[in-house]
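Minutes, project check-in
Item: structure for the 104-residue chain
Input as provided by the requester:
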Amino acid sequence: MSEKSFISRSTSTRSGTPKPAEPTISDCERRRQDIERLERQNVLIDGYKKFLLQERMNNRDQTPVYKNLEENLQETIEAKAKLVSELRTMPPCLDVNCSDLIQL
């Protein structure tokens, strides 16, 4: 392979078009999304615990599957803790007419 062909493939020829700005969401919408994500994480954590228990009962040795499930459980628990921390510091929505208003 010649140096010229390598360079032509590795250099981008696309123009530098900026990415469109992400739509801004209200505090209530962000809180609602985070609470939904927290609920999904709780389901995942329960599922991982059940699978780990089943795997432990079926195989006395720690198989690669068991270790993978254990790692996933720890990652999910850490993500949940971070999300809970973010929810605690998130400002409340004070607009009573907000469609995303959630009463905790």
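Outcome recorded: The two ends are 63 Å apart (CA to CA).
No further action items on this chain.
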